[in-house]
Amino acid sequence: MIIGLILAVPVGPIALMCIRRSIAEGRFHGIVYGLGVATADSFYAAVTVLGLTAISGFILSRQDIFRILACIVLILVGIKISMTIPAAISSNVSGEPYFKDYFSMLAIAIANPLTLVFFATILPGFDVVFPPGSTSSAMMFVFGVFCGSTLWWIILCGSLASVRSFITARHLRLINRISGIVIAAFGAGALIWVLVSQLQGIFLF
After folding, report:
1. Closest C-alpha to 49, from 15, 4, 8, 11
2. What is the DSSP letter of 93?
3. pLDDT category of residue 36 using cuts at 50, 70 and 90
4. Cα 1 → chain centroid
5. Domain extent at residue 161
6. What angle do CA 34, 102, 145 make, to 5 degrees?
7. For residues 149 and 46, what is the distance between their CA atoms, to the nearest angstrom?
8. H or E element: which one contains 75?
9. Cβ(39)–Cβ(106) below 8 Å
10. Exposure pattern of 66-105 as b/e (b: 16+ CB <10 Å)?
11. In this structure, are residues 89 and 21 in contact, taking their beta carbons and an 8 Å threshold?
12. Radius of gyration of the CA atoms of the chain, in A
């Protein structure tokens, strides 16, 4: 659970999307967004601890493709958020289906192979070792990662949603602009970094 919390706590573009969703649509929409992230974290934890070398090798060998796609999605999402004109916030949440929230965030989070790199590097540091045949222990670890990540999103989104009544449409518009610009900037910066790395590799070759 501690490792799940460590992975979830840093504020990045995905966290900003969950924060904005909680304020704009209510705590449950934000928490469901967070559940999508927690599921992606758990998937990569399972790939790491269960030794699924075929899947991890496939992901890592094509990580630049996944990262480029994730960056493009972040840029588009950031632009859309920054241009969204919100209505006044009321106590009623939108009728947006929860499963759409869940699967849309799951798709964005799972397109980030750096989570797999995180587990591959952090587990040895925590002296987490699963000998062959210890599938039940490995699955308990994966469940702990999911619970730790989910706990963070419940605390964060639940707390932020409590102040919705104090936020006006003008405040939300400002939140949309700032969060949208930051999310798009994250995506653009990461995309530039990936492309520059690819060009350097080509020239060095």
Report:
1. 4
2. P
3. very high
4. 17
5. 2-204
6. 45
7. 14
8. helix 63-83
9. yes
10. bbbebbebbbebbeebbeeebeebeeeeeeeeeeebbebb
11. no
12. 18
User: CA-CA distances (angstroms) from residue 166 to 20, 29, 124, 193?
Assistant: 15, 18, 45, 39
Residue of 17, 164, 169 lying closest to 80 (CA atoms): 17
CA-to-CA separations, 178 to 43, 78, 83, 174, in angstroms, rounded: 31, 9, 11, 6
* The residue to which tokens 């009544």 are assigned: 165
H/E run at residue 134: none
**Integer angstrom CA distances of residue 36 from 73, 108, 169, 175, 199:** 16, 9, 27, 22, 33
Copy the structure tokens of residue 149.
């990540």
pLDDT tens digits along 118-153: 776 666 555 555 555 567 777 888 899 899 999 988
Between CA 35 and CA 109 the distance in angstroms is: 11
Tell me which amino acid residue 73 is.
Answer: V
Find all residues with CB under 8 Å of 87, minimum gap 6, and list them: 169
Question: Who wins on pLDDT, 62 or 37?
Answer: 37
- How many domains, in total, are found in the chain? 1
pTM above 0.85, yes or no: no
